[in-house]
Amino acid sequence: MAKKSVKTERSARAEIAAKQRAYLRDTFKELGITASGAASALGLSASTFTRFLKLPDASEKMLSTRTMTQVEQLRQVNSDSSMPTTAQAAWGAVHEEAVRVILEGKSGEQLARVLAALIGDRIGIEPWQLHTRALELEGFMPGDIVLVDQNASPRPGDAVYATVEEHRGRSEPIMRLFQHAGPVNVLVARTMDPKAPPALVVDRDRVVIRGVLLPHRLSGKLAA
Fold this sequence. Notes:
By secondary structure, the protein is an alpha+beta fold. It has two domains: 2-95, no CATH class; 99-223, Umud Fragment, subunit A. The protein is built from six helices and eight strands. It has an eight-stranded antiparallel β-sheet, covered by helices on one side. Strand 5 and strand 6 (184-188) form a beta hairpin. Helix 1 runs parallel beside helix 4 (65-78), helix 1 packs antiparallel against helix 5 and helix 2 (35-41) runs antiparallel to helix 3 (47-53). The longest helix is centred in the N-terminal third of the chain and has 30 residues, at 2-31. 21% of the residues are buried.
């Protein structure tokens, strides 16, 4: 089971990385700039995009969320087209509410030490970085690094990590508040966003709770 989980996680990262490369190629073509020119415009190393674009489709190496956000902003500012392209639509599909934190590089070493101190000898704890406002009224903000206890049983009022199965069997990670609503359990957003997502019934088939968020919140700068 563990090997299958690792394989699935690697496949997911490779899929996201492939979509990042498709989005970059589409963006640079639309804006009429080179990969190195785009990097220069964003204040990045000239090889940031050129090296990434040469990676094979099976590569798990991804660009950071911060870098991809910079590319999106560059595109929005300079694009003459208001219609999304195929690559834009594909990239939009992987704007997940949260992503598993991968510990690598010097910042990863620093974050690993902090997480080790917080987790102690407990098992089944995973770090995730939030990209959603769904729990902002509970104090969890976009960019925060949170700890998910996969072995905890949720109680009403707990913030939880769950997955929702979408088309083609893809499961999307979500962060919600767990509540009772009559005879059923539901997941609700706690946000001031007027476009808040609707409540979801926990059916243990399409909507499955995977863990409970611990109260710890770390700055996203630690994973940058």
